[in-house]
Amino acid sequence: MGFVTGPRIQGDSGSNYLGQRQSPSMARDIQNPRPNDNCALFLTKIPAEVTLYEMFAVIKTGAVFCLHINPPNGAHTTKAAKLAFMNPEAAKAFLAKIQSPQGVFLGGKRIQGCYNRNRYARNEKFWQSRVLELIGPNQLMTLEYWTSHFSKFSVFELEAFQLMPTNIEGLSIMEFRFARIDGQSQTCLQCIKKDHSLKGVVQVRYGADPCGSSAC
Q1: Were 192 and a residue from 100, 113, 163, 204 both cysteine, which residue would form a disulfide, CB within 3.0 to 4.6 Å?
Q2: Domain count, the chain
Q3: 73, 100 in Cβ contact below 8 A?
Q4: pTM of the model
Q5: Is residue 141 situated within a structural domain?
Q6: Is 122 domain-assigned?
Q7: Per-residue confidence in pLDDT tens, the chain, 216 aa
């Protein structure tokens, strides 16, 4: 089974923040950093029809910490997005692509970008990823089961998911690509590890981010 784009936001959130239900976001904002230390970009001129999957498809300069898309509003007919990478080198490289003569295009339109006003520091937990890989019995490896389970602990958004076979009969792998680490992939990984009913039944680990490496 190839990658399938994820469902819409799971859970019920009263704000634009998507993440762990009972814990605040792990703040990575930094005070008065050098410009080149900033891992976050602000993207504009994104066509309204562009999906999360299409956004991630053009990001190839480094692993992503979070991507949050703001929908069009009364003043704007296009979307905007905050994109934070795991390291500042990835942000600098993607911004250079946007500002290059070739540019970055989504939905046939060239997008614009600049460093985000609220700056994000390098994420030293380079082993973490917005991607989770689950290994478990075939009967548990369904989108319906895991979105229901994850939604008990997190308000999350999936870019895509994939079901893959293993060389062990009765076991499958599911890969989930979340929109962010903090409060989403991180929380969902912990909810599996702490669930006694899943101990010895389901294994979970961080997977490689297709956007690129987290270490630089």
Answers
A1: 204
A2: 1
A3: no
A4: 0.86
A5: yes
A6: no
A7: 555 666 655 544 333 344 544 444 444 555 555 656 899 999 999 999 999 999 999 999 999 999 999 999 878 899 999 999 999 999 999 999 999 999 999 999 999 999 999 999 999 999 999 999 999 999 999 999 999 999 999 999 999 999 999 999 999 999 999 999 999 999 999 999 999 999 999 999 999 999 998 765
